[in-house]
Design a protein that fits this description.
Length: 757
């Protein structure tokens, strides 16, 4: 390896970065986007007001349920390069490559090039890491921010300068404005490392430096939240996902403690939970292909419609991830009878072995056994030398990063699979560190510790084979035997290679690379699947895990009670479910979702669509064209083109036109916005006229009151005025069959019009 790493240019690093870019960018234009965020970015481009507050709609009615930084970046990219799927995904994919490079820079000074190269390679091909950087979810930007903060922290310890420490903590504060409390998961490692690794700095000065940096952290973290909360509510959008229209409440509650406990702390009254159907059947998800096939066999003439509309039947839940409630049955009590310790999004049963259960093991746990052997090796080096070096400090930093997260994800009840990507940098770093440490023992051939590398390779290989076996219903069992054979053969070679130093080195490198074969295979499956854009998961189970737009899958396939008149979008291929990655009938046309947009128009909410306001070549996929035509013919420039009961129902219209759609109740319909009084005033002022109400209703008692007001004070529009009953009831209808759509959504929808008092 040395001949490849001499000189200023590390050829192997370049290869690894190109490999990372290849994984991140492969077919990215067709990967699809999280429509919840895509709609918000498009709305943000219409005015600085919407940009700053991260408004979901161009009229500035309600925000998304996340802080602004990652979406600001997406909006800036869209403003410069044009609004389309690839541009929205570009910053996240680039962030993944840069994170790999930063890990190399961080590890190399402490453990050398070999460790740095291995660490960067492990991160580059970590399945859930690759899955998340290929979406416009905010996690990849968060990881890049935290990796940059880590690099600055290393500089602070190395140079013993306060400025670097302040920069490091300031970047963590920026991370808070990417995904709130999730950014603070690394703080124990940051405090620990600086406090113990800066031996030459006096204790008092050390504490003062940490206090100053913590103050900076707090100021930057709360800057946007305070700015929003101090703005009069009448002059800004409602804060989506909160109960009290407060960013701080959202951060500490729904995006904070609720993630651990699973209790509802935001997004409206918990009473709305029972109105939102949930499913949590792994078997149903894994057999989504069979469900689709059976549908097509039952009625070949309408197979296209049934396939598209039934994709949501395998959704793990309709529960929200910002903008609403956790699923019905707090504490993870599921409709399938799962225990209270069950995770809400098919994340397994809480407990010390949760990360090794089939629901999560294939996401991030492939190399965890080798991390254990690495820790043993580091302990042995300390016991043998009785010297606590900077290498030990550095290793403990990554353990302090990893261990609290392992504990959290083992007991928390409210998170998605892709949150596990937070563990990827620490695991990757410890693999590189561990390999160097164990190889040094191995080549000395002294004592039991020389067996740590061979045994670590064997045990990890067998565990990886177990992961494949856990998913044998989705992948060929041959891959399990590949893992077993590789582990056994390389173990035997490591044991037998006693003569030549070169042979030892070659076999050792081959053995650590062999541990990446199955993770790379898992990653390859991930990047070739469609429908993984809203709540990404890794490997063949990328159809499981519940979904929505801010962390949950919304879109046409989700079981979210989307009104029968339209379907929620997913990226732009709005007739495709976002949770059915194994469905062979899914097409991958999401690049059309936002293509040909150029810069989003500077129109306000009530402006009719421009010629380029339609996506995918002017098609309104996923929206009942007859209903849309009726609404356009009766639109008189109101501020809101239509009001719907949740954000998913607005995706298609707002992605394809410049109209503003009011998402009453936010993402899942459970936010207390608007109130009855507010809606009545808007209707009287001529800001809103049409309301589309589904039979399923809205979540939350407050929003039920809104629905009741609409039904009592508005006139029902006969469906005959905007739909052809004969075509709707035809067994050979096309993909806009409203009867099928309505049945899949838990009840028919009714259009209401407000005509004044």
């Amino acid at each position: 390896m040395k001949k490849w790493t001499k000189g200023r240019v590390d050829i192997l690093l370049i290869i690894i970065l190109l490999f990372s870019a290849g994984l991140n960018f492969y077919n990215l234009q067709n990967a699809g986007t999280n429509s919840y965020y895509s709609v918000a970015v498009k709305s943000m481009l219409t005015s600085f007001h919407n940009f700053f507050f991260v408004s979901f709609d161009p009229a500035g009615f309600i925000t998304v349920d996340k802080p602004p930084v990652a979406l600001w970046i997406q909006a800036i990219f869209a403003y410069i390069f044009g609004f389309n799927d690839f541009v929205l995904l570009l910053p996240e994919a680039l962030a993944g490559v840069v994170s790999v490079f930063l890990l190399y820079l961080i590890v190399k000074p402490k453990f050398g090039r070999n460790s740095a190269l291995i660490s960067s390679l492990v991160l580059a091909c970590s399945p859930i890491f690759v899955a998340v950087v290929r979406t416009n979810n905010v996690d990849s930007i968060l990881l890049l921010t935290l990796m940059t903060a880590t690099w600055a922290l290393m500089k602070a310890v190395e140079k013993q300068k306060l400025g670097w420490l302040i920069l490091s903590f300031a970047l963590v504060g920026v991370g808070f404005n990417v995904k709130m409390m999730q950014a603070f998961m690394v703080l124990p490692a940051f405090f620990f490392y600086y406090f113990f690794a800066t031996r030459e700095i006096k204790m008092v000065k050390k504490i003062i430096n940490l206090v100053i940096s913590t103050v900076v952290l707090a100021v930057i973290s709360l800057s946007w939240a305070v700015a929003v909360d101090l703005t009069p509510e009448s002059e800004r959008p409602y804060m989506g996902g909160s109960e009290t229209n407060s960013v701080l409440e959202l951060a500490l509650g729904y995006n904070g403690l609720s993630r651990l406990t699973g209790n509802n702390s935001g997004g409206g009254s918990s009473s709305g939970q029972q109105e939102m159907p949930t499913t949590n059947s792994t078997e149903q998800t894994q057999n989504s292909d069979q469900t689709t096939n059976s549908n097509s066999n039952d009625n070949s003439e309408s197979s296209s419609t049934n396939t598209q509309n039934n994709e949501g039947t395998s959704s793990s839940s309709s529960m929200q991830d910002g903008g609403g409630n956790p699923p019905s049955g707090q504490g993870g009590m599921m409709n399938d009878g799962s225990s209270q310790n069950s995770g809400m999004f098919n994340t397994g049963d809480a407990g010390p072995l949760r990360l090794f259960q089939s629901e999560l093991s294939g996401q991030i746990s492939w190399l965890l056994p080798f991390v254990l052997f690495a820790v043993i090796g580091l302990v042995v080096t300390f016991l043998k030398t009785r010297r606590y070096t900077m290498q030990h400090h550095f290793s403990l930093f990554w353990l302090a990063w990893l261990m609290p997260m392992m504990v959290f994800f083992s007991i928390a009840l409210f998170y998605h699979h892709y949150y596990l990507s937070m563990m990827a940098p620490a695991i990757a770093a410890l693999i590189g560190i561990g390999f160097t440490t164990l190889f040094n023992f191995y080549k000395e051939e002294k004592g039991w510790e020389s067996w740590l590398l061979p045994v670590g390779i064997l045990v990890t290989s067998l565990f990886e084979a177990l992961i494949v076996y856990q998913n044998s219903s989705s992948v060929s069992i041959i891959w399990m035997w590949v893992g077993i054979i590789l582990g056994v053969v390389l173990f035997m070679l490591l044991v037998a290679a006693k003569s030549s130093e070169t042979i030892k080195h070659t076999i050792a490198i081959a053995s650590i690379l062999s541990l990446l074969v199955l993770p790379i295979y898992w990653t390859a499956i991930t990047i070739t699947k469609t429908g993984n854009e809203s709540t990404p998961t890794a490997g063949p189970t990328s159809a499981m895990g519940g979904g929505r737009g801010g962390g949950m899958q919304g879109g046409p396939g989700s079981d979210m009670g989307v009104p029968g008149g339209m379907q929620g979008g997913s990226g732009g291929n709005m007739t495709r479910g976002t949770d059915n990655a194994d469905d062979s009938n899914n097409s991958s046309n999401s690049s059309n979702s936002t293509n040909n947009q150029g810069n989003a128009s500077q129109m306000q909410g009530g402006t009719p669509p421009s010629d380029n306001g339609k996506m995918g070549g002017g098609e309104m996929d996923g929206v009942d064209t007859e209903l849309m035509q009726y609404l356009e013919e009766n639109y008189n420039g109101e501020k809101f083109f239509l009001a719907v009961q949740r954000a998913q129902s607005a995706y298609s219209i707002m992605l394809n036109t410049d109209y503003a759609v009011m998402a009453m109740g936010g993402f899942g319909g459970s936010d207390p916005a608007p109130t009855v009084e507010e809606l009545e005033k808007m209707a009287d002022d001529g800001e809103i006229k049409y309301f589309l109400i589904s039979g399923q209703g809205m979540g939350g008692s407050g929003n039920s009151d809104v629905t009741s007001w609409i039904q009592e004070n508005c006139e029902e529009v006969p469906s005959s005025e905007y739909s052809d009953d004969s075509s709707d009831n035809s067994s050979s209808s096309d993909n806009t069959d409203n009867t099928d759509i309505q049945n899949q959504r838990g009840g028919s929808s009714t259009l209401y019009v407000y005509k004044g008092k």
